[in-house]
Amino acid sequence: MNELTIESLQTTILDIPLVRPHKFATTSMDRQPLLLVAIRTTGGVVGYGEGVVPGGPWWGGESVETMKAIIDGYIAPVIVGRRVDEITGIMLDIERVVARADFAKAAVDVALHDAWARSLGVPVHTLLGGAFRDSVEVTWALGAAPVDEIVAEAEQKLAQRLHFSFKLKMGALDPAEDTERVAAIAQALRGKAGVRVDINARWDRLTALRYLPRLAEAGVELIEQPTPGEQLEVLAELRQILPVPIMADESVCSPYDAFEVARRRAADVIAVKTTKCGGLARSRVIVAVAQAAGIACHGATSIEGPIGTAASIHFACAQPGINVGSELFGPLLFAEQLLIEPLRYADGRVALPQGPGLGVELDLDAVRMFTRN
After folding, report:
1. Which residues are catalytic?
2. How far apart are CA 254 and CA 286, in angstroms?
3. What is the distance between the alpha carbons of residues 16 and 37, in angstroms, rounded to a whole number?
4. Is the CATH code 3.40.50.1000 the one for domain 6-121?
5. Which of 303, 304, 336, 368 is packed most tightly, with the most Cβ within 10 A?
6. What is the model's pTM?
7. Is 127-351 a CATH 3.20.20.120 domain?
8. Which residues contact 85 (CB under 8 A, 6 or more apart)?
């Protein structure tokens, strides 16, 4: 039997504590569940992928529990016995069996890329066309503490040269209160660091028209998904009247979504999460659509662990279209380390891991420690 043949697929749910609670518009979390996907070949190579969503099923309808059920029950039978270098055909066949479930498919896509690259003895970015840079900028997500504590956290990151731009979540508080909070932070950091916001699609049109100009006035440099993802006309209207870029996140989960955003001129930037887009292969198509339309792309995060983050770093370093930095800070939020050698963050950037596959090695003792019983 060929050494590239997939012998088995195994899924494991992990629960990793965070260094502090991470808040979204509708929820917060103090630990991040991860679904670890391991694909083993007959040649003895193991490739890993990671199923992860930002804070649970509120974002896209998936959770680690649904991903595990879908992968174990429906995707594994499609791929066991196939070759790991048949990624295109495998993913097409999975589409015939499972609709949507893009976060689950992304985990499998990454595991296939990792296993294939390790079998060849090359890094994953080689399968994506090769890296043209060896690191990518990383924006840090600030917490939901009082203004003075948030500013102090940002200034500490600046002093340590860890991050030079920051993102604040909005949408959970009264819009007037939320706006004044963020405006105060932006004004305190003006001239020192870039500040951007993510409203997670929680404001309606009138709220956005009323408060977004105030944020721009205060020095916010970029506004992410202020209104519901399907309301592209509203996003386009806001883009026309605001003096700062609009980034689409919830609005873009597929190449067709990217095409519609481009056609309607609804955003200046697209947040490309390799997780929500269904993996590395589909993410490449989305970036290509954006590039053709002159839209910038940002390496966004679902608060991935080290496997998902490493995959996104390889992607960003091999894609010139990812040209507005990244938020690939996920492992820095984790209170526990899952790798034998951590990812390297310094000078506002994260380095491209070196070595075959994703270039990272899991600490299997740590994996066992955080495995959900």
Report:
1. 169, 327
2. 7
3. 16
4. no
5. 304
6. 0.97
7. yes
8. 4, 116, 119
